[in-house]
Please model this.
Amino acid sequence: MLFLHQLYQYCQRHWRKYRTIVVVAGIVGIGISIFLSHHQVRAQDTLQQQENQLIQQYSLPQPSSPAPVYQPRPRRSTPAPRPAPASSPATPAPAAPAPAPASTPEPESPPEPVINTYVMDFNRSPVVGYRLRLEGVYPETRLGITRPQSWDVKAMKVVLRFQHSPSLVPERSNLTLRVNETSVGSVWLNQPNSEIAEAVFDVPPSLIQDYNELSIVLQQNTSAVCTNPEDPTLWTEILPDSKVVMDYTFNATPLDFNRYPYPFIDPLNLNANAIAYLTPTTYSDSWLTAVSQLQASLGRLAEPRLLNTRLVQDLDELEWGEGLMVVGQPGNQPLLSELTLPFEIENNQILDGEGNPMPGTVGMLALATLQDGAVPVLVATGNGDEGISKAVRSLVQPENRNIETGQVLVVDRVSSLQSPLPRRWPGFVPTDRDTFQLAELTDVNGNLFTDITVNGTEAPGIQIPFKSLPDEVFHRGSTMVLEYNYSAQVNGRLSAVEVSLNNIAIASKRLDSWGRGRKRFKLDLPPQLLTPNTVLTVRFLLRPRDSQVCGPEVDQQLTGTLHSTTLFNLSRDISVALPDLALLRTGFPLTDPQDLSGMAMVLPDNPASVDVETMLAVSKRLGNLSDAASVQFEVYRASSLPNTVRQQKNLVAIGLRDRFPLPATLTSDGGSFGLQAGFTRIWQGNQIQAFPDTGGMIKAAISDQSDDHIILALSAQTTAGLADVRDTFDRDPLFSQLQGDTFLISRKEPNPSPYNASGYTTQSLQQSPQRRIQQASSLSALSFFLQRYWFLIPTVLVLLALLLYGISQIYLNRLHET
Model:
């Protein structure tokens, strides 16, 4: 109170002295407040006008029907309708019966859902193959099976057929089946003389998930006390005709873009996903580019599942389980006017909610169904090519898919992503540094490695994908520092840690007597074993300290841990020889960078269906082999291919010989293989005519516009031959055989199996001179030169010896003269 009183007195004494300043300050403050308020109001009005203008410009259409529902139908053959019996002219038609009295119809009950049965044999799993042999005291193996998203599994049973060693003690040997870590049953291993036994396990439907793991756990003993785990008579074989049987019904699923790519791609599908593209009225560069980019994206999303793709001219050609893709403007896809879509189409123009044509720069995405919901349809359209390109890019780029929802999307803006750096391939070893840790590598599921612990005398090996880029060459001096530890119950004298590359053991070390703290083990990595498909395996061979004490409790106490701080140091350079089709098995050089921006495709001016289907097969394969946030390659027809593209990019040229877009590539230069008119084949000066020539050709050659790029020619004399080339990119057994600079293929039977290459005849040729592209130090370049031209070393040594001998003789003669 005293302070306030003093302040009041001070203001009374000095009021006249400072009143002018106070008044001026007050006026200025009021003016500033008025200005800021007016500016804020104007900013709000401007923002509101922009929003209103945007809403008026892109008025969304109002859906006139509920979202389409996808309802798969059971796969069954439709019986042909029986013909009506012919009426005889001599027999009078019977009189019509008297009409029954009218009655109130009873309401129809909904039809019972059809129960479908699916049988999956164990031999479909690469873990099983022709047999699955389990050895040791406590062996265990695991198999995975998924539940498709459209299935409602009502019942599931596992039928195991097996045989085991006759030396097993029945009272101490058994087989247990676990589903998702829950035991569902056990049987004794008591069959005499290795007879085949069969056990049926019923799996409760409540245990079934999207991803299911079947674990077969064995306990095998040949002694009533303690069994030697090295006993070779400890074995049980699971036969490949064992199977999983599931009874299920189909679920009805409302279509929504927040579920994309389902139902067109189901990552849980037990069969191959199938897609059909509706052929447009005319082919254009923009349409070919759009469907190729979409196909490459679907190839990435479907991996590792199979994806079957084809073109259809009419809806009657659709087969069971196929999804339909309709890409193009309404004028180029007449079917759009027949579909039930949430927007109007008039005069080949898409209209907005106010009846105005949508701008050509805006793309439209919509979901629909055909055949009473059995066929899902994806529509990517617009009133202009730019809009269609935006619509497809929004499906291709993951960051756009994350915000997509609903039945229809209006795509106005799509961000352009920067191309990734060359030689930065996800899932491969780092290329920007030679020293890195295990924590920087990813497993088969794309997750970074952490510390991994295994246990038991039959501990599984820890597999590490150690893939190097195809253009890398390794030298001696690449090392690995293994960091690990193990439990104290391990007998160090009988236990070891082993490292192998591609199932070839490269080093091992006996464990110490006491497992205390981290251990380190430095070893050399053989350069010849480091390839783009290398798998590094670390295996702990563990034995208990007291062999007289046995049981599962003792076995589970034996642990080994691989630490993520394990260090790698690589000695490598960049060196690759082109052309080489073996490099194409990893996608190189077409998939560098990983967004495929370093390549382009070329088709004839008037492509045929087999040309476009081959283009789709190549796009899908390149999508499988790449991993990026976008797809940025383009497709051209022969007359529209720019010279800058020919000079700066790798090219994939597709077409029959008589309309091949780059005909110079098919000529025979320097003895290479070539195709000419009249079914003529030329190779190394030899010339033949084959009638008919039904084989296909895949040829890689250095580009005539750039020595650093290649042209991949996919051609044939006939449509059947080009279809075989398409199958090469569609089917893994054929694609894995690519090598040399020319690959010839032809089928031996009308309908070869897609799961092996026995139905085809293949041949690889290597004749064209190769060009080596390398980035290496002077010493490494000299080493590469000597490795390629080693036969010159003896000649150089002899000439050098003669030169030194001559110099020494001249010196001795002069010395003698003096």
About this structure: The chain has eleven helices and 43 strands. The radius of gyration is 36 Å. The first strand starts at residue 69 and ends at 70.
